[in-house]
Amino acid sequence: MNVDSLYALRDVAGVPSHPILFLVLGVVTFALHMFAVHVMLGGAALTIRGALSQDSYWRQLANAMLSTAKIAVSVAVVIGVAPLLFVQVIYDPFWYTSNVLSAWWVIGFIIILSIAYLLIYLFYFKNEDLTQNKTKCPGSMILSLALFILVGLIMHTLTNQMLSPDQWMEWYAPQGQIDASGTQLHSINWARFIFMIALAAPVTGAWLYGYRHYISVRPGSDSGYLEFVHALARKLLTQGSIVSLIIGAIWMANLPENQAEFLTNPMLYITAVALIALAMVPTLFGAKINNGYTAYWLVAIAFVVIALVAVDREIIRWFALVVESGYNPMDYPINMDWYSTILFFATFAVVGGMACTYLLTVAWQAGQTEGTYTPSVAISRLGNWTIYIIAIWIVHYFAVGFWVWAQ
Amino acid sequence: MEMLGLYPVWFEPTLGSGWIIGIIATIHVLFSHTSVGAALVFSYLAVVAYRKNRPELLDYIRRYGLFLLVFSYVLGSITGPGIWFSTTVGSPRGISALIHSFVWKWATEWVFFVIEVIGVYMIVYLVNKVDQKTHLRISIIFGLASYTTMLIIIGILSFMLMPGNENWYTEGGYLNGFYGANTFAQLAMRTAFMFTMTAVVGGIVASSIKDIDFRKEMVRRLAILGLVATAAGLGLFKWYLSTIPATAELVMENRLPEYFTPALISVMGGIMAYFAATLAAPKLLKPAIAGVMTVVILVFGLWPEEVARESIRKPYVAGGYVYSNQVIGRDVPGLGIHSEIPTIEEHGFTNSLIFLPEELRTVTDSNKEAVGQALALNTCSNCHSLTDTGIRPLANYFGDDSSESDIAAYLRAALSSGTTLYMPQIPLQQDEALALASFIRQLKDQSIEIAADQGNPITVTQSH
Questions:
Q1: Residues A317, A216: one domain?
Q2: To the nearest whole angstrom, how far is the Cα of A237 from the nearest Cα of chain B?
Q3: Which domain-ending residue is among A336, A363, A395?
């Protein structure tokens, strides 16, 4: 596929702001999405492990992780919408072609994800309290996890196929015969995919440290259970980081030719060091890790590692598409639209910031309170202002709309 | 070589990509409209519960909310991006046109969607765990955020039919594309019908309430909501129709099946009768009946509506400038967009398509059916199935006795000049028209063979 063809595939409408904004937002939101995916995968795996165990601590953990996994799927899906949006804006020739070439799998993604999601709820409704009752229908949770991994594989393949424009025609019309069925997954990089999945272990380890600390402040928390969670968190964090590092090294050793330049990029080594540092945190901090907010900082550090991986992924894409194929998303024609650009960032910062701060603060504190939680005056005021600001947003929508309509 | 930025084609032989997009979109409309309507109903009920100290209403919110978590937020949140996915593979330049004009609007909607999803979990799981006033605040935030997602998506849906303001073509600008009479008419109509859906789906939960008096009260409340919303929706539907462009009206008159209007009236009548019956005798409502009614709305209400919405956009698929076959069909100077028709007229498809095997760029006797198939995939298959099943099978549009030259003549006349109202202009070169005609004739022969096997000959009069 020559570079002129790639440019010809670009959308003729251009983009409404500088492409760098979409690139940065794409990386940041992908990192958030992957973090939620990792928590979901780890939570689901621990739910299965605990639900199949007779040990009371394991069953207690399974109960908690089931709720975690259930909510993490929602978070992953909701946040996943954003990178899906931004990749279409600046990488449209690559994303759309890759999708069409495996169209049935793209449709399958929707169906399989729906089934996997519903299976979690099926397991939840059958097992509302794993600490008191026997596990029912564990197969639903096992199948759910397997299907989540399968949708991950589909998404990985679509992303990977983007990086090989030279092979597109061969995939679309092998031996000159057009195959428009879209039934094939054409390009899987197993080491890369397994690396992305394996990161769920250290992330879940860090998450468990945070979870342990969160429940430890509740009155009457069980110290034996806290110690059990601590030991498991440490194991997942340390061993998971090392395993991820090994798989990552295998991926790097087998990078395709058009991505191989990444081996000379400092970000690769920064990420490796960060992953090693993550593995060493429990050893370095010892028991202090459970003091104050250290455990929550550990969750933040785990997110930083995932964010570094998201940056690496973008650099690899840059090498494959910009350096090797000659397509530069940064020269996308701009039809600047200040209104919608400013509106998004204002909504994101003000409305999103206020609403999420209020809602998450209430959820957080309610979870740590025995009985009915009543927020402080300041928090309640934030809630009121969140209502006002959304109402103002809606009034602005109609005011601008009627004004435009009247023109 | 002048290149057309057309992507590879996905062809699904049984249903056709158009119907697959339609099925996913229809399901999503049910989930999303129900959830937005329910969010506003929850806000109202939370206010009543707080002011009149009626905790049972909060329990109803919790139960309906839990049901919605699975019904709307699991499936709705997947089928939403699912529409992106399905249009990506079925109409990549169509979705790309929307994305590139409205990316920030979609991103803004995403902010509200995040708030909405956090909100639904909180109103379900924090009932009785936070004080009532806090729960009320959360319910209102949830309701407002949810409705805002609808406000945003409506402008994009309207743009699919046409830009809000004709100036968009010359000046560009998101506001010109987003706002117009159709935006507000569609918003009003969908707002009404979303309450209809909320009332029907809410019946599944309300009819299973154990306290008989409370069950009656909730079923009656929903019935009143449903009756008012449906009646208002019908009135607003007329307003909506008055805002669609003249070409869309013509397409509606000529291309929608005759049964469409009576069927729509029957469905609306049936829904009103259902609400009237549940208002008069709330005891009769059972979860299964409400469930069946939900499916009825999905199949007989939303599906025809989505099909009609797709049909009246023809020959365009987005913004009145992207043809349904993905070719850019008109200039949009405001965005520096040029029609691709002159390029095709000058160079032909075979010399312009990117995803075409080199051996098909020159038509020969030995490859003309293969070239014809490639052309049919690129220029026809978005709207016409290339098999006997699926969306508007192509072979049905030609007579049994049409020769290749007859078909080619039609292709070079009506289609090449763009004089058929609901069809894109498809300026085929002479050799391309012959190649496509050869492929269509082959399709027709196969179709006749299949019909003969089934003892049911296909005639032109059946072709709609």
A1: yes
A2: 28
A3: A336
pTM, full prediction: 0.94
Residue A274 · residue A239 · CB < 8 Å: no
CATH number at residue B108: 1.20.1630
Question: For B165, which of A4, A168, A404 is closest by C-beta distance?
Answer: A404
Count of CB atoms within 10 A of residue B253's CB? 8
Residues of A in contact with B9 (CB under 8 A): 100, 180
Q: Show residues of chain A in contact with B26, CB under 8 Å.
A: none
How far is A391 from chain B, CA to nearest CA, in Å? Answer: 7
Residue among A14, A101, A343 whose CB faces B104 most closely: A343
The pLDDT value given to residue A100 = 98
**Taking CB atoms and an 8 Å limit, are B122 and A103 in contact across chains?**
no
Of A87, A83, A77, A90, residue with least CA distance to A116:
A77
Amino acid letter, residue A261:
E
Does A362 lie in the same domain as A289? no
**What ipTM was estimated for this complex?**
0.95
Contact A81 B81 (CB under 8 A): yes
**pLDDT tens-digit series, residues B73-129:** 888 889 999 999 999 999 999 999 999 999 999 999 999 999 999 999 999 999 889
Report if residue B369 sits inside a domain.
Answer: yes
Give the tens place of pLDDT for each residue, A101-137: 999 999 999 999 999 999 999 999 999 899 999 999 9
Domain range enclosing A202 = 3-336
What is the span of the domain harbouring residue B206?
17-323
| CB spacing of B111 vs A352 below 8 angstroms | yes
Q: Among A310, A336, A362, which residue terminates a domain?
A: A336
Task: Tally the C-alpha atoms within 13 A of residue B48's C-alpha that lie toward its C-beta.
Answer: 14
- Taking CB atoms and an 8 Å cutoff, what residues of chain B touch A118? 70, 74-75
Query: Dihedral of the CA atoms A373, A376, A381, A382 (nearest 10)?
Result: -70
Q: Are residues A36 and A184 in the same domain?
A: yes
A253, A297 in Cβ contact below 8 A?
no
